[in-house]
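Dear colleagues,

As part of the handover before I leave the project, I'm documenting each prediction I ran so the next person doesn't have to rerun anything. This entry is a single chain, and its sequence is reproduced below.
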Amino acid sequence: MKPAVAILLLTPFLFSSRVPVAFGAHSGRSAFFASAAEKNFAVTDDSLYDAVRRRLADDPVVKGGGIQVEVKDGNVTLRGKVDDDKARERAAKITKKIKGVRGVSNELTVEK
């Protein structure tokens, strides 16, 4: 691709709050755009909340729809019910891997 064409194609992204990331940067994710928590920008509690919710919802084991997420000063609390211990532990592991997360309080319970 010629440089002039690349500039024209990327110009709309220069003025948006979300920027494209390289394909394959987030394996298994269909999203082409990343939140601030997933890039090298200042991380806010709001951007962490969005990133955690998105990652948990995208995970086939966790199926994060029923998980409540609370973020305060980079510390994330997970509450709600999950299907099994594997989903409970995986939710915490996924959350800990998100850039900007300082700590995770896993208050998830296993629904029997």
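DSSP finds three helices and three strands in the chain. The domain at 41-112 is CATH 3.30.1340.30 (Histidine-containing Protein; Chain: A;).

All the best with the project,
I.
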